Amino acid sequence: MTSRTSRFRLSDPSLFVQQAFVDGSWVKSADGKTMDVQDPFTGKSLGTVPDMTADDVASAITAAKAALPTWSALTAYQRQSYLNSLLSLMRANADDLALILTAENGKPLAEAKGEIAYGAGFVDWFAGEAVRTYGHNVPSAIPGTRNNVIKQPIGVCGLITPWNFPNAMITRKLAPALAAGCTVVIKAPAETPFSALAMCVLCERAGIPKGVVNCVTVDKGEREAACGLELCENPDIAKISFTGSTPVGKLLMKQSSSTLKKLSFELGGNAPFIVFDDADLDVALAGVVASKFRASGQTCVCANRIYVQRGVYEKFAAMVADKVSTFNTGDPMLPGTQIGPLVNSRGVDKVQRHVEDAVSKGAKVLAGGRKGDGCLFEPTVLSNVPADAAISTEETFGPLAALFSFETEAEVISSANDSEVGLAGYVFTRDVSRVHRVSEKLAVGMVAVNTGIISQPCVPFGGVKGSGFGREGGKGGIDEYTIEKLITIGGL
Ligand code: SIN
C-alpha cells in the first residue's frame, strides 16, 4: 500500500490493484496512459489506473471470445462451483472490499459493508440459478415431430457499470452472465475502478479461467466514449448490460443498432414517494430515511418527489426535518457517519441548483440546505415545493428531500406518473384496497408499499419508460444472458 491510501489499511493490500485485467493478466493501457482516482472526502489521489483505449477494449473482447467455448461448455454445476468460490472469497474479504469502496465512492463504511453483502447476495443467488436454466418441450403441431427448447449462453457480454454501487452493480451483471456460460468485458466507472479490480483479483483467486472475466478502466471524456463505442459496435459482443443515465442509455442503444445486440438498461429514476393521510407516519418516516438518504441520496431508486397528503403534511414535514437534522455528516470512514461526501463536485452543484431553484419558487428550507466542505452537502428537507421546481422533473442524486402536497388519490397518481422515467415508486397507506389500486396504476417497474427498501437479489429490478428495460436479479435475471433455441426433430 502506498502512502496515498494511508487513510485506510487493508488486511490484504494485494486487493488494491492499479492495473486493468485482460486475458488473465494485469495490464497497462496500450499507450501507458494512466488516470488519477480521487477520494471524494479528502479530494486527494488514491492511486492511478490505466486510461485505456478502444484498442484495449478490442483486445479484452478478443480474450473473452477466445475463452467462451471452454467456459460455456462447462456443466452448470462446474460454473456454480466457481461462483460459490467467488462468494466465499467475497465474504472472507468483505471488510477490505468495503474499505476500498468507501475510499473511492465516499459511501459511509457501514453502508459499504451493506453493499458488499448485497453484492455477494447476487453471486449467491445466481450460483443457485446456474443449475436452473431449464428448457422445455412443446407439443408439436406437425405429426412425427418433437419440439425441444433449450437455453444457451448469449455469448460475450459488455457490462458497463456505475459508480454509485461499485460492487453490487458488477455482481448483479457478472454473476448471471457467468452462471449462464457467458464471458465478459467489464467497463469500470472512472470514479470507482478499484472496487471492480478487487473483484477481478477475487475472480482470479476463485480459479475462473483466464479471459472469462476482463475489466478495462478509462477516464471520462473522449476515450470513454470511444471505449463505449467499441463495446457497442464490436460484432463479437452479443449483449450489453448498462446501468447509468438515460441520455447515455439512448446513445448506447443507437450505437448498438448496427450489430443488433441484446440490451438491458437500468437508467435514471425520479421516484414518487406517496404518504396518504391514513399512513402510519413512523413507518413512512423510516421509509424516507431508507429510500431518500441511502448512499447519501445517490441511488436510482431514491425517493425524489415526496408527496404528502394535506391532512398530515405539516406533521410529517416536521417529523422528517427533525429526523434529518440528527444525521451525522462527514468522514465516511468514521463509524457514526450517516451521510458522506457526494462522488464529485458536479453532484454537489446539482443539489445546490435544485435547492436554489425550489427556494426561488417558494419552497421553505426545514433542514440543511447548504454545501459543506469539499463534496459534502448538508442533508436537506424542503417543504412547499411547487410542481414547477426543477426537482419535479430531474433526479437530484443527493441528500435532498423535497416535500410536495396533494389532496386526492387521483391527483397524486397523475402527478407521480407525469414523468419521462419510471423506475421505483413508494406508497404509504393502511388501506388495503388503495394499496392495490395505487400500486397497479403507478407507471414504474417496482413499487414498495409501507417500506423504503426495495432491492434484493431475489426479485426483478428494472424500470419502464426512460428508466430502461430488462430485469436484473430475480428468477428472470439469468434469462437476460441466454437465448432460447428451438430444436424441432422430425422423422419420428
Ligand atoms: C441503482 O441505484 O442503480 C441501484 C440501486 C439498488 O440496487 O438498490
Automatic annotation (TrEMBL):
Superkingdom field: Eukaryota
Alphabetized UniProt keyword annotations: Oxidoreductase
Reactions performed catalytically: succinate semialdehyde + NADP(+) + H2O = succinate + NADPH + 2 H(+); succinate semialdehyde + NAD(+) + H2O = succinate + NADH + 2 H(+)
InterPro entries documented for this protein: Ald_DH/histidinol_DH, Ald_DH_C, Ald_DH_CS_CYS, Ald_DH_CS_GLU, Ald_DH_N, Aldehyde_DH_dom, Aldehyde_DH_Superfamily
One biological process term in Gene Ontology: gamma-aminobutyric acid catabolic process
EC numbers for this chain: 1.2.1.16, 1.2.1.24
Enzyme class: oxidoreductase
Gene Ontology cellular component annotations, sorted alphabetically: cytoplasm
Keyword Oxidoreductase: yes
Residue ranges annotated for the Aldehyde dehydrogenase domain, each copy included: 26-485
GO molecular function, one term: succinate-semialdehyde dehydrogenase (NAD+) activity
UniProt xrefs under SUPFAM superfamilies: ALDH-like
KW Disulfide bond (keyword) present: no
Pathway(s) where this gene product acts: Amino-acid degradation; 4-aminobutanoate degradation
UniProt-annotated catalytic positions: E266
Family that this chain belongs to: Belongs to the aldehyde dehydrogenase family.
Name the record gives this protein: Succinate-semialdehyde dehydrogenase, mitochondrial
Species in which this protein is naturally found: Filobasidium floriforme
